[in-house]
Design a protein that fits this description.
The complex is a heterotrimer. In chain A, strands 1-2 form a two-stranded antiparallel sheet. Helix content of chain A is 70%, strand content 3%. The relative contact order of chain A is 0.15. The longest helix of chain A has 31 residues. Chain A has 11 helices and 2 strands; from the N terminus they run αααααββαααααα. Chain B is of the alpha/beta class. The longest helix of chain B is centred in the middle third of the chain and has 18 residues. Chain B has a 6-stranded mixed sheet with strand order 6-7-8-3-9-10, with helices on both faces. In chain B, helix 3 crosses helix 4, helix 3 packs parallel to helix 6 and helix 4 packs across helix 6. By secondary structure, chain C is of the alpha/beta class. In chain C, strands 7-8-9-4-10-11 form a 6-stranded mixed sheet, sandwiched between helices. In chain C, strands 1, 2, 3, 5 and 6 form a 5-stranded antiparallel sheet that branches. The chains are: A mainly alpha, B alpha/beta, C alpha/beta. Chains in contact: A-B, A-C, B-C. Chains B and C meet through helix 7, helix 8, helix 11 and helix 12 of B and helix 6, helix 9 and helix 10 of C.
Chain lengths: 265, 286, 323
């Protein structure tokens, strides 16, 4: 259950950890757009340099990053296979009526790179940013929406609390499943309907517990004088510094270069 | 007496995270039929993991557990049957109640065993009676009961499967003194009436001293001691070094002895301490 | 079965017999300690609270009197332990001290403020901070320092002042080293200390703790108790600690015992723990040393009254033995 949570925060003291979360959110967004702009080798070189710089500057052990990729191996395999066999073009190999084309190989490699880069890039962000900093950043970036009466602070608070409780609830799910198994519950046999029904004894206690936790947490927040976002101050206010502007510059450079590789080459 | 559970050279590690370090490190012990084994250990010593291994909820890296002479991890072993014969009561078991009323919830275990409805209901009734819940609780929602009642209803849910071995993970956690007393008395009563083998994990050394026949001390996944309570609790310094302690009265007796009173130090129960002190005073008078 | 020889399922004190006692009865002011001359930080007057239970259609099913005619006062700097079985009303009482609940009858004053007055709500909550039972359900931040800052942030404490408050609060409960740790990785005892630090950062005069040790192991309990005693001693913070673990009450300045919504006993640990039978009747118990002393005294061994801890008991026994 725990492996689902993509890129848990990895505490370290690095340039990336110290960056403003807004910069990291925007950069990740720019990076992903760039990934979809580039098509050829020069473009991929730009993106690779950007990604490698980020990984190195993050001080997160590369092994941790790779472990994050293990979750999508299956997805990568499907992408590669589909691309290999379905793209028409100059034939390279053929057997049993299936053809692999040069274009297919290029496309498969490209798609795989894109996936790997996408996951690695976004996990650099989640590894270096605490979820609460992320929700702070999101709140700040969404501030303009306040004009349209979007409860920006409440949404950010909800996201942050939800993120905090995911590991707790997933551990709880595990325990409840085991406890019902101790009462001879069978989750693995029978048809779909029977299997779905078998989970009621897990879901009901889980919901009850989630509500109890929510209730407790609300009381605790009230006891600590929480009354919405309007009068709150921040211990770690979001302030841009020199390095943040540098990264914005790097983002601009990245996206410009990527567009140039498409237009000029 | 014959052995009902035998653990042989058991090693276990979680594969996710924690860098695969074993949580249980090659432990071996056996449980006699009808015995009362207490397991104590610091949080993280592997107690809960060991309990889950006992009913096959986790698979060991190596080693085996024999129940009634058969290895429960061998291929084709009927784990469902095992779990009906070895009932595991989790910590805070009331958090697993889910049915609309207590009676139905207690029927869940027997129903999973494929028993007829009538048989389920008979067993549920008997189980609820034996944990001492009154009839007016039977059709109440489990969420309306008091903390102590919920806990007893959850224990009834395990008892309804008529286990031969009852394994309990801190059954008194979070209860008030009266609730704790009720649960401990219930366990002793069940053992007497049904001849059940009991394996109990608790942080209360006083409960251990008054109930257990043998205590297994787990330290960092290994067995520190496996002996009678009096012998285990005589190692006060060693116990303290692994975050445990002896019952309060044992310390009092040791101090009395050190300061010249003629009392034994292997006393672990308050009533025995009282008698020994009275006897010491009587001897002195004489 | 040999090991069970002599086990008596009921508490082993024989019932009946009048315990010798000097206690002042329920509701009375029985504390003659040094701090008594100081001001009241908490005062309740004829406090009563009804829970209204409704059925599924929202109709009133029954009314439960959870707290009934409670008159207590707590002096600044006192360490008060409230004991009581489940359902004795101690948690309901605690929630009144933080204005999470408002009295049905009577009045509660926190540092002179009437908790029923809406305008004073936040000041009441800041003055009497509250820590709850479940360590997981009261931590809001994902990292220790973020969580500790949550309270003062809500109070609008200026940003530059916050890191200092976090630092002093974490140091007061001796976990400054965990400042940057993810809260999820902490032990139960550490989590509860983070919660205490989160209250301290709001600069309260009083902390109310509702069974903070109930879900902890013995090591965690010790950690929390050590932290609370230190806060009371060093920072002179008033502590109101609710528990049903008798050993945690031994070091209190005063114990209040609740039963069925009322204050049943109030006095120093020595006074309260001399009422063994009453405590048992309220669904409580007494520390082992107290029980042993009580039984020995009943058996005619001449040890003085007022023994609460193991060392006191051994001292008294050795004195008597060598006499």
């Amino acid at each position: 259950m725990k492996s689902i949570v993509l890129g848990q925060y990895y505490p370290a003291d690095s340039l990336l950890h110290r960056l403003d979360p807004r910069v990291k959110l925007v950069s990740t967004f720019v990076y992903i757009i760039s990934l979809f702009i580039v098509k050829d080798l020069p473009g991929y070189i730009c993106v690779t340099v950007y990604l490698l710089a980020a990984v190195i500057l993050s001080k997160v052990p590369p092994v941790k990053m790779l472990r994050g990729l293990s979750g999508i191996i299956f997805l990568m395999l499907i992408t590669v296979i589909v691309n290999l066999f379905t793209i028409p073009g100059t034939p390279l190999l053929s057997f049993h009526g299936l053809h692999i084309t040069v274009e297919g190989v290029y496309s498969a490699v490209r798609m795989m790179l894109r996936l790997v880069y996408l996951i690695t890039g976004s996990s650099v962000m989640t590894f270096t940013t605490t979820p609460s900093a992320l929700s702070d950043g999101l709140e700040s970036l969404m501030k303009p929406l306040k004009i349209f009466r979007v409860p920006v602070h409440d949404i950010a608070m909800m996201i942050s609390i939800a993120l905090r409780f995911i590991p707790i609830l997933s551990e709880e799910t595990d325990i409840i499943i085991k406890a019902q198994k101790a009462r001879c519950a069978d989750f693995d046999s029978g048809n779909m309907v029977k299997r779905a029904k078998a989970f009621i004894p897990v879901l009901v206690p889980l919901f009850v517990s989630a509500f109890r936790r929510a209730n407790d947490l609300a009381t605790a927040m009230e006891a600590r004088c929480y009354r919405g976002g309007d009068t709150r101050t921040r211990m770690k206010p979001l302030l841009y510094s020199g390095r943040d502007y540098l990264v914005y510059a790097a983002d601009l450079a990245l996206v410009t270069l990527c567009i140039m590789t498409r237009v000029m080459l | 007496m014959n052995t009902i559970i035998e653990v042989r050279d058991l090693t276990f590690s979680y594969d996710d995270g924690s860098s695969g370090k074993p949580v249980i490190k090659g432990i071996s012990f056996s449980v006699e039929k009808g015995g009362f084994i207490g397991i104590i250990g610091h949080t993280g010593s592997g107690k809960s993991t060991l309990l889950q291994l006992l009913i096959g909820l986790l698979k060991p890296r190596s080693g085996e557990i024999l129940f009634d002479g058969e290895d429960i991890f061998s291929k084709g072993y009927d784990l469902k049957k095992l779990r009906s014969r070895v009932g595991l009561v989790f910590q805070y078991p009331e958090y697993q109640l889910f049915e609309e009323n207590v009676f139905k919830d207690v029927c869940y275990g027997p129903a999973n065993l494929g028993l007829t409805r009538k048989e389920c209901e008979l067993r549920a009734y008997e189980a609820l009676k034996s944990v001492g819940l009154s009839d007016d609780c039977f059709y109440a929602s489990p969420f309306e009961l008091s903390g102590g009642q919920k806990r007893r209803a959850a224990i009834a849910g395990i008892l309804a499967m008529k286990p031969e071995v009852l394994v309990l993970d801190e059954p008194t956690a979070g209860l008030d003194p009266a609730g704790r007393r009720e649960i401990m008395n219930l366990i002793l009563k069940l053992r007497k009436e049904r001849d059940i083998t009991v394996i109990l994990v608790t942080h209360s050394m006083e409960d251990m001293a008054s109930c257990a026949e043998k205590i297994l001390v787990l330290d960092n996944g290994q067995i520190g001691y496996f002996d009678t309570p009096a012998k285990v609790f005589s190692h006060t310094e060693e116990l303290e070094s692994i975050g445990l302690s002896a019952p309060a009265v044992t310390y009092i007796m040791m101090e009395l002895r050190k300061r010249g009173m003629d009392v034994p130090t292997d006393v672990i129960r308050p009533e025995d301490a009282r008698d020994e002190i009275i006897a010491a005073f009587a001897r002195r008078k004489a | 079965m040999a090991a069970n020889r002599g086990f008596t399922p009921v508490p082993w004190a024989a019932a009946g017999g009048d315990p010798p006692c000097h206690i002042v009865a329920a509701g009375g002011a029985a504390y003659g300690n040094l701090k008594a001359r100081m001001e009241d930080i908490i005062k309740t007057e004829e406090l009563g609270f009804d829970y209204i239970r409704r059925n599924e259609n929202g109709e009133v099913e029954c009314i439960v009197r959870a707290v009934d005619d409670v008159n207590i006062s707590v002096k600044k700097g006192e360490f008060v332990v409230i004991l009581g079985a489940n359902g004795s009303g101690k948690s309901t009482l605690a929630k009144h001290l933080n204005a999470l609940l408002k009295p049905t009858d009577g009045t509660v004053w926190v540092d002179g403020m009437d908790t029923a007055e809406d305008g004073l709500l936040w000041e009441v909550r800041r003055t009497a901070g509250m820590v709850f039972q479940n360590p997981d359900n009261q931590i809001i931040g994902q990292v220790v320092d973020e969580d500790v800052a949550f309270g003062p942030e809500n109070l609008g404490v200026p940003g530059p002042e916050l890191p200092g408050r976090v630092e002093e609060s974490l140091k007061a409960v001796d976990i400054y080293g965990l400042k940057d740790s993810p809260t999820i990785s902490l032990s139960g005892g550490q989590k509860q200390r983070v919660s205490i630090a989160g209250i301290l950062a709001m600069h309260p005069t009083c902390i109310v703790l509702d069974e903070p040790t109930a879900m902890l192991d013995p090591a965690g309990r010790k950690e929390v108790m050590r932290a609370l005693l230190a806060l009371n001693d060093v920072e002179e913070i008033t502590v109101i600690h609710i528990t049903h673990n008798m050993d945690e009450a031994v070091n209190a300045d005063r114990i209040i015992v609740m039963d069925h919504g009322k204050v049943a006993l109030s006095g120093t640990p020595t006074q309260v723990f001399s009422r063994v039978e009453e405590l048992l009747a309220y669904g409580l118990t007494v520390p082992d040393a107290v029980m042993l002393a009580y039984e020995l005294r009943k058996a005619g061994i001449g040890i003085p009254e007022g023994i609460v801890t193991g060392p006191q008991l051994t001292e008294a026994l050795i004195n008597e033995y060598n006499h």
